[in-house]
Amino acid sequence: MLAEERQAQIAEYVQRKGSVSTMELMSAFDASESTIRRDLSVLSRRRLVARVHGGATKIRANSQLHDEASASRSRLNASAKEAIARVAVGLVEPDDFVYIDGGTTTITMAEMMGQTSATFVTDSLPVAQRLLGRGCHVILLGGTLKPLTEVVVGAATVEAISRMHFTVGFFGANGVTPEAGFTTPELEEATVKEAALRQTQHAYVLCDSSKFDRVSPVGFGAFEDATIITDAMPCDPEYRQYDNFVEVKG
């Protein structure tokens, strides 16, 4: 079978099933793991499937493929984000070593933070500024500052995180599904998120209900890797089998 023909069939297979593992595709198409991985890379670049850890999912109609500026996102679902952020603030204990990454809900959380002896580490310039304004002890990670989202990325950022051990961490996500886990549009930011998630004892994803059933191009964690704080759980029964939800009310 020609590569182009196999890739077309894989794209149709993923679209029909919604999500598939690499092992399933290897069996279905009698192909090696390296061949399937190459095919998925090609299909991902052509925006025909979304690559996720261990396989691929279909690109859904409401997928977010590109990051947006924080200012434009901050106006969306503002009351839900405030309710989520309020619960997140209550999870920070005085002696915690806290990681907070970029995102409009994490910025809202930083704006609500009260006086505390906890230490905060962040890759987000807006989060650092707001925590500093609240009198918090803040460590701003070094790296390359991205102008759109105002977070720092790069090898130096990841290397610094790898030496730290956070008692609690708070993460933003552009998309959340059981199959794809937590996803975001940009590879470098996903790499930083993944590194911090790995170093966090108790991880929380701050996720308003609009983020469910979205798949952005790059994954940074499996669905079970964090507790999800949200304003409303999805009605889809697929989500109801999980117990890692905290549902808040505005």
TrEMBL record:
Residues 3-58 form the HTH deoR-type domain. SMART domains: DeoRC, HTH_DEOR. Keywords: DNA-binding, Transcription, Transcription regulation. InterPro entries: Carb_Metab_HTH_regulators, DeoR-like_C, DeoR_HTH, NagB/RpiA_transferase-like, Tscrpt_reg_HTH_DeoR_CS, WH-like_DNA-bd_sf, WH_DNA-bd_sf. Gene3D superfamilies: 3.40.50.1360, Winged helix-like DNA-binding domain superfamily/Winged helix DNA-binding domain. This is Transcriptional regulator, DeoR family. It comes from Parafannyhessea umbonata.
